[in-house]
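I hope you will forgive my troubling you with a question about protein structure. Here, with my thanks, is the record as I have it:
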Amino acid sequence: MQNSLFFLAALIYLVCAVLPARQRTAIAAGTLLAWLVHGGALWTDMVVPGSLRLGFAVILSATLWISVAAYWLENRNFSLDSLRVLVLPSAAVAVVLPALFPGSLVALQDKPVLYGWHIAIAIMAYSSLTIAAFHAVLMAVQEASLHTRPGGRPGWFAAMIERLPALLTMERLLFRMIGFGFALLTLTVLSGIVFSEELFGQAMRWDHKTIFTLLSWLLFGSLLAGRHWRGWRGKTALSFTLSGFATLLLAYVGSRFVLEVVLHRGLA
């Protein structure tokens, strides 16, 4: 049943992605409907009595689910319709992945009581920094458009870029999202240390997931420190944001994709 819901949510996301920007009410309502269907399907697939279904597809789907919510709320406060053509098609792809790559069930009886919260916080950190990465891509396009001579009637995407808030406002929004995501990522790292101590008898396992997560944490932390102390902005901020996001993506989703799809190994 949930597989049908995954594909239904993907279809609605795609329809909302291609609707003309002037149909703002229909886009908002359709996106909300797709988000609700996506969330219901994800919950029934991921939460099993006494277990959690985890894997790169489930985590990526959950990440885009929260990212859609962030886009939907942000677009109500600011004119960010161009974010729609980045977020919704990505969500449409991510939402069907659990049906194709179901991952593995992880029993909770031998895990700490707050293990589920650790997973939830990690997904929220992924999501916050994912929407920040989409936002950074928009800023890069917006900045490039400022140096391009207008020639004739702009295309639909160029027209949406022109309707974005001022670049300084976009930059403030970017750092607000990064600050929130960094706080959640810090909680993820700290709770991971606690659970590693309980599960494996050591404060930190130096595997690929830990190394890439810490590298991402350092990149985003350095960006926020550079912003505060050195006034970093513009291309420096965008480079750090996209590098930090790519590193974070490798920490779990990328490594799990290799193990599950390429090497056909379940969760360790």
